[in-house]
Amino acid sequence: LIHTDLHGPLVVQSIGGYKYWISFIDDYSCFRTIYLLRTKDGAFAAFKAFKAYAENHFDSQIKGLRDDKGGEYMSNEFIAFTTGAGITCQHTVRNRPQQNGVAERVNRTMDEGVTTMLAESGLPKTFWGECLVAYVHVWNRVGTSAIENATPYQLWHGTKPDVSRLRVWGCAAYVHVQKDKRRSLDPHMEKCIFIGYPEGYKGWKFYNPQTRKSDLPIDVYTSFSFAFARFLA
Description:
Elements: E1 2-7, E2 20-26, E3 32-37, H1 43-58, E4 64-67, H2 76-84, E5 88-91, H3 101-121, H4 128-139, H5 152-157, E6 171-176, E7 189-196, E8 205-208, E9 213-215, E10 223-228
Parallel strand pairs: 1-4, 4-5
Antiparallel strand pairs: 1-2, 2-3, 6-7, 6-10, 7-8, 8-9
């Protein structure tokens, strides 16, 4: 069983132009997967991507989907797709959001977590998307009261997570500039801000406040500081 809920629109558009997110929570492992969306219409594509990811990697079919009967779940294409895949949809009744309590609580908790992380780091609200992705990455790798002697990541993937690369979100970082990206007498390090764990990369994601660009350096010379972004000049 997969619990799902759409959150938004947020009052501030994120970097990348996102205004919503959709969450999918596995009932057994409590593992969370989120997709950032520019419009509600992206919910169907997000579910198809999640279904392909889950079933391809774990050799298991999605049997049920629980939602709040929002319009994004009731489109003809969404219903036709779930029916064709043999997925049983469980919709909540009118004005009873508690029937979709798992996904509702998850989205509320993530909203509060992102708000706290942004306030602590001093980064603008436009970074909420990067913050949310990092929040979920960490949450899946730590213990929860709903699971005994395991983490959501461990139950979902069947192996213990590597937590050695976890860092404080929004902290200052001194990133090594690779030789092919600098000229003679240019500094070898740049002062950046740590903003996440990019999917598909064995490294971290940083934001350079001087160039206003994000980068994905995968370099052992990266040095982190516990000073938060608001202290960067």
